[in-house]
Amino acid sequence: LRSLVGSEMCIRDRNYYAPGYEQPNEKASEAIKMLARLEGLFVDPVYTGKALAGLIDHIRTGKVEQGSNVVFWHTGGATALFAEQQMLGDIF
C-alpha cells in the first residue's frame, strides 16, 4: 500500500507480519540481531522487529531507492525481548 503524506510517500507493506501477532519470525530475529550488533539498539519482535525486517528487505531488493531519505519510527518495546525469552529462544 502506498499513501501520500504531504508531498512524500509512505509505504505500508503487510507481508512481514507472518506467522501472526506476538509470533516472531526468522527475518525479524535477523533484523533484531543486526541492529543490536551494528548500532547497539534493541527492538521488540512483535512490532518493531518485523517492521525493521521489512525495511531491510525493501532496501536490499531496491524498493527503497539508494540515496533515499528514510524515517524508521522506533516506538519502543525493547523490554519484550527479555520478557518473552522463551518465545524467542537464543536471539543474542
Number of helices: 4
The SSE order reads EEHHHH
Q: How much helical structure, as a percent, in the residues?
A: 25-40%
Mean pLDDT: 79
- Strand content is 5-15%
Distance between the termini: 33 Å
Q: Major beta sheet, specifics?
A: 2 strands, antiparallel
Given the C-alpha coordinates, what overall shape results?
A: globular
Supply Rg: 14 Å
Strand ordering within the main sheet? 1-2
Unreliable stretches, pLDDT < 50, 5 or more residues? none
The class by helix and strand makeup works out as mainly alpha
How many β-strand stretches? 2
Question: Could you walk me through the main structural features you see in this protein, from its secondary elements to its overall organization?
Answer:
- The chain has 92 residues and is mostly helical.
- It contains 4 helices and 2 strands, in the order E-E-H-H-H-H.
- The chain has a two-stranded antiparallel ribbon.
- The N and C termini lie far apart (33 Å).
